[in-house]
């Protein structure tokens, strides 16, 4: 009986993700991937065609996981502003636990490959725009509920939030103490033009 290939594939993607996340696309060798996944080179190439093919699927897996986490946090709260605050609370906890400063795989990849690989840049840009869109929709709902001032631009504020998320992800490589993240997040949230009741 054949093995359940889909389950095996997911396992391989998770193990390969850890390697790419730690050392980047360029810094990862096929030997590294063979060691991490316990697959022979022929099996790896048979399933993914190339290191790049495997990396593209890893990015898709990582991005889908990110989209699910963000949407779950932003959509499951009657108060849109409370949802954004909860997101940043969880985000702060995530980056504080990143003791080796590996950051975000998508952001890392953009910094490494955006000027060299148009297809990868466009793929990741699409995922990041989906996350930005979720923030914009949440901020629009906040405005409709009277939690955000009428003069505010949800689209511009969503870009502002994304810029801060990117910045903290890059900053995590320097491994600052948690008070640094807390201060940045507090200032980010305080900058939102929230209606005080």
Detailed description of the structure:
This protein has about 200 residues and is mostly helical. The chain is elongated and about 65 Å long. Residues about 1-5 have low confidence and may be disordered. It has one domain (about 50-190): Orthogonal Bundle (Tetracycline Repressor, domain 2), CATH 1.10.357. The chain has 9 helices and no strands. α4 (about 50-75) packs across α5 and α5 (about 80-95) crosses α7.
Topology:
Elements: H1 5-27, H2 30-37, H3 41-48, H4 51-75, H5 80-96, H6 105-113, H7 118-144, H8 154-171, H9 178-190
Helix pairs in contact: 1-2, 1-4, 1-6, 3-4, 4-5, 4-7, 5-7, 5-9, 6-7, 7-8
Strand content: under 5%
Q: Give me the number of helical elements.
A: 9
Q: How many beta strands in the DSSP annotation?
A: 0
Can you tell me the overall shape? elongated
The CATH superfamily is known as Tetracycline Repressor, domain 2
* Reported CATH architecture: Orthogonal Bundle
Mean pLDDT: 91
Query: What level of helicity do the residues show?
Result: over 70%
* SSE-based structural type: mainly alpha
Low-confidence stretches: 1-7
Sketch the topology as an H/E string, one letter per element. Answer: HHHHHHHHH
Main sheet properties: none
Task: Give the end-to-end Cα distance, rounded to a whole number of Å.
Answer: 64 Å
The radius of gyration is: 19 Å
CATH topology: Tetracycline Repressor, domain 2
Number of structural domains? 1
């Amino acid at each position: 009986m054949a093995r359940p290939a889909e389950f095996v594939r997911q396992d391989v993607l998770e193990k390969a993700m850890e390697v790419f996340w730690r050392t980047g696309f360029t810094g990862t060798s096929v030997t590294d991937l063979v060691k991490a996944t316990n697959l022979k080179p022929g099996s790896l190439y048979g399933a993914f065609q190339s290191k790049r093919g495997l990396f593209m699927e890893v990015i898709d897996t990582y991005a889908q996981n990110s989209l699910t986490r963000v949407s779950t946090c932003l959509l499951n709260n009657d108060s849109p502003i409370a949802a954004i605050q909860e997101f940043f609370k969880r985000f702060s906890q995530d980056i504080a636990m990143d003791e080796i400063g590996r950051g975000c795989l998508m952001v890392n990849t953009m910094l490494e490959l955006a000027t060299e690989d148009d297809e990868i840049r466009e793929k990741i840009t699409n995922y990041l725009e989906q996350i930005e869109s979720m923030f914009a929709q949440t901020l629009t709902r906040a405005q409709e509920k009277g939690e955000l001032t009428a003069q505010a631009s949800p689209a511009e504020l969503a870009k502002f939030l994304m810029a801060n998320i990117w910045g903290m992800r890059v900053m995590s490589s320097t491994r600052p103490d948690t008070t640094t993240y807390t201060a940045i997040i507090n200032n980010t949230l305080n900058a939102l033009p929230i209606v005080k009741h």
